[in-house]
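Form 7-S
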Amino acid sequence: MNTGDCQIDQFTNYERYVYYTPGQVMVRFPIVYQDQWNQSVSTLDSTYEVGVDTTRSTGTRNLFHVVDGWGTLKIPGYEGSCLRIWSNVTNDGESEVFFFTREGPFLRVGMDGSQPSSGTVQAREVMFGFPAPQDLTKR
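Output:
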């Protein structure tokens, strides 16, 4: 679940925080190919410049998610099977593609909503992560 996003630019002292209520559901479990769901979340967007709250706005994000592909995710230090989730924010022209693996590593690509859903795209942001190692035998 994603409860918000943050952008910080240390060179310009610019900070932007966006909070989602309820939290944005990134993936629902159990999940299978061709699952889809809609979600509407309220947003609170705050921007700070040199520590001063310069902009504050509220709004709504209407999201449509579909598990539309599968394959192999190859990122530094990991290669494994994944499902692809295409997320379209219908009212603000943004799209996100998530690649989730059973083991936990993921990749997120954010782009303008006018980009195609396959092939070469112009990414606005890219993020990948690995979950913290856990000893599942101690549960």
